[in-house]
Amino acid sequence: MKKSILILEDDSATRFLLTHYLSTEYDLSIYENGLEGLAWLEKGNNADLIITDLEMPKMDGFQFIARARNDDRFRDIPILVTSSLDEAQVRKKIKCDCPYFQKSVELSSLKSIVSRMLNEV
Length: 121
Description:
This protein is α/β, with parallel strands linked by helices. The protein has helices spanning about 10-20, 35-40, 60-70, 85-95, 110-120, and strands at about 5-10, 25-30, 50-55, 80-85, 100. The two termini are about 15 Å apart. This is Response regulatory domain-containing protein.
């Protein structure tokens, strides 16, 4: 059975690339903001990994991470943060020790990060 990844990303081109790189090996649930992703989780759906952008409408990644980490149901799901923001700035704002993936880095390296994180579960 494929492992499940929840992807929160508002940029359609990035969503397309993530789908292209990950859909053959993983079951993907993709939403445009944290509010939609949180609603999906609250309906009883489960993910083995969450990949979230930080800058999104309605509920950004910072807010999503805070809500997920404060909810016992979702607290233990690993989160991979993706952003074009500077990692040092991000680390000051997020309240978790989540791995960080700089969007300007080649997306093929994302596949190895995801695989490593899911093998730790």
